[in-house]
Write a structure and sequence with these properties.
The complex is a heterodimer of chains A (223) and B (280).
Chain A: H1 2-12, H2 16-32, H3 40-68, H4 70-74, H5 81-113, H6 119-147, H7 151-176, H8 178-190, H9 192-219
Helix pairs in contact in A: 2-5, 3-5, 3-6, 3-7, 5-6, 5-9, 6-7, 6-9, 7-8
Chain B: E1 2-12, E2 17-26, E3 30-34, H1 41-48, E4 56-61, E5 64-65, H2 66-73, E6 77-80, H3 92-100, H4 108-117, H5 131-143, E7 149-153, H6 161-175, E8 181-186, H7 189-195, E9 198-203, E10 206-212, H8 213-219, E11 220-225, H9 227-231, E12 238-244, E13 247-253, E14 264-265, H10 268-279
Parallel strand pairs in B: 3-8, 3-9, 6-7, 7-8
Antiparallel strand pairs in B: 1-2, 1-4, 4-5, 9-10, 11-13, 11-14, 12-13
Helix pairs in contact in B: 4-5
The chains are: A mainly alpha (223), B alpha/beta (280).
């Protein structure tokens, strides 16, 4: 574990300024950038996008390692393939959780300044963020480990966009009919906590499946 | 014990094949893989290290079968590729810190000694190093965890003769105690001639020859003669020949040189070139 942190810190040194800047922007926005009359989505979008961006940056470490030949070299070292893959997931999910929680603090501040804090609403937002980013990471990490290409980053962005598009299409579809809209509102209002927990459970399952796929892919990779 | 034992190694690609390569490197010795670019040297090394999955054959490193016990043997091998694989924005200090998390037997003192001996600036990013410095760093990293077998893939190509000579000296020092072994591939035969105890010629994915270097010097020689004189020598005694307007030059078994023809000592490079040309 110490090794993972040391290595990641070594790699992240250059881009750490960027992460600090992201957190700083989020803090400033939380305290000064919220207008009580603001649309909730508008208020939430920036910190959520920060989470998406920050979670994607550890993928840059995978790219740096594969393109420099470091991954190939590591495979000749005593480091186990599973340990190497695990390290990548730990780093990626550390960033997701750190920035996801930071974004959620922003949500709490927003709620306090507008409608008041609603734990269920908060958990639902958090779950959607974790769910979308977790799925995107789970798809991207195996691709990046296998292909050693920057194209993996495009996959990450594409997955995020696709998931957001699905959510958008679903909301448009539901709001097109009164019955659909009422049903969706009723579902969300009645079972926010259950929905949040289902999404969070899925967000936790994706990386486990993805991890096993990644280990298998890397073990069979021909360098 | 053998440091490396390869039997019947095979691998097929769309347009290239490694065909039935068998090699043995006894502990304490240096084996040079010689071959032209694209001959299959790097592929063979990748197969040894399981970076490529072999189609057939077996590989034993330090007595352990890599199919079953590769993880156990990795602590005892140091690998240097033709390019420095370490992150470009690291310096030697950061790299040492990172490598200490990978190798149980990482020796920081030895690493620092190599860094200072090789004159590598510790705070300068690796990206600012010359190719020679990068190679020295890769070798320092490979030697600082008390590896028993060093595997170098074209580590000296692209380096100037002075740096190549320095690296040769470092490697000779590494094997001087008789407990360490080296497998080195290169197409720069002169380097291997200085360093190796055994040479293996690889051409188009096949092993043409694997022999003790001194044995080659003892058994073979170069002769200059006429075409007619050459025809008088047994065909299987002639390893390779070049026939020109003014006569013939050939590498032949010393024992088969007819009286009256002066035998000259061979060099490995000439032997390799003649063998390749003869094959083609």
């Amino acid at each position: 574990m110490t090794g993972i942190i040391k290595r990641t810190v070594c790699y992240m040194n250059k881009i750490s300024v960027f992460f600090v800047a992201l957190v700083f922007v989020m803090i400033i926005r939380s305290f000064f950038g919220i207008d009580p009359g603001m649309d909730p989505f508008e208020a939430m979008i920036a910190p959520l996008m920060n989470t998406v961006i920050a979670s994607c940056l550890p993928l840059a470490v995978i790219f740096a390692e594969t393109s420099s030949g470091m991954t190939k070299w590591l495979m000749t070292s005593p480091m186990k393939t599973s340990a190497y893959v695990r390290e990548k997931y730990i780093v990626a999910y550390f960033f997701l959780i750190f920035f996801g929680l930071s974004a959620s603090i922003h949500s709490v501040i927003f709620m306090n300044k507008t409608t008041g804090f609603d734990i269920k609403q908060y958990l639902l937002i958090l779950a959607v963020v974790f769910g979308v980013v977790s799925l995107a990471l789970s798809v991207t990490v195996p691709i990046m480990l296998r292909t050693s290409s920057v194209a993996g980053l495009s996959v990450y962005i594409f997955t995020i966009m696709a998931l957001l598009a699905v959510l958008l299409i679903a909301s448009i579809f539901l709001s097109s009919s009164e019955a659909g809209l009422n049903g969706a509102v009723q579902l969300i209002n009645s079972d926010k906590l259950v929905i949040a927990l289902i999404i969070l459970a899925a967000a936790a399952v994706f990386p486990v499946i993805s991890y096993f796929i990644s280990v298998r892919l890397l073990k069979n990779k021909q360098f | 014990m053998n440091a490396l034992e390869i039997k019947g190694l095979c691998k097929s690609f769309k347009d290239f094949k490694i065909k039935d390569i068998s090699l043995t490197l006894p502990e304490g010795y240096v084996l040079g893989l010689i071959g032209e670019n694209g001959a299959g040297k790097s592929t063979t090394i990748k197969l040894i290290l399981d970076l490529l999955k072999k189609d057939g054959g077996s590989v034993k490193i330090l007595g352990r079968d890599i199919d079953k016990e590769l993880e156990l043997v990795k602590e005892d091998i140091g690998v240097v590729f033709d390019e420095c694989c370490f992150p470009a924005d690291f310096n030697t200090i950061k790299l040492g810190r990172m490598l200490s998390t990978i190798y149980k037997s990482w020796d920081r003192k030895v690493y620092d000694e190599y860094i200072s001996k090789f004159g590598l600036p510790p705070k300068k990013p690796i990206s600012k190093y010359s190719r020679g410095m990068k190679m020295k760093l890769s070798i320092a990293a490979a030697l600082s965890h008390h590896a028993r077998l060093l595997i170098l893939d074209e580590a000296t190509s692209g380096l100037d003769p002075v740096v190549r000579d320095e690296i040769t000296d470092i490697l000779l020092e590494f094997v001087s105690d008789g407990e360490h072994s080296i497998l080195i591939s290169s197409h720069i035969v002169s380097d291997l001639e200085k360093l190796c105890d055994y040479v293996a010629f690889i051409h188009k994915g096949s092993l043409m020859l694997m022999e003790e270097k001194d044995r080659l010097y003892e058994d073979y020689c170069v002769i200059h003669c006429t075409g007619k004189e050459l025809d008088g020598i047994k065909k299987n005694a002639v390893i390779g020949k070049k026939i020109g307007t003014f006569g013939a030059e050939a590498i032949v078994l010393k024992s088969e040189v007819p009286p009256g023809i002066q035998p000259y000592p061979i060099d490995i490079e000439k032997l390799f070139i003649f063998m390749v040309k003869e094959r083609e």
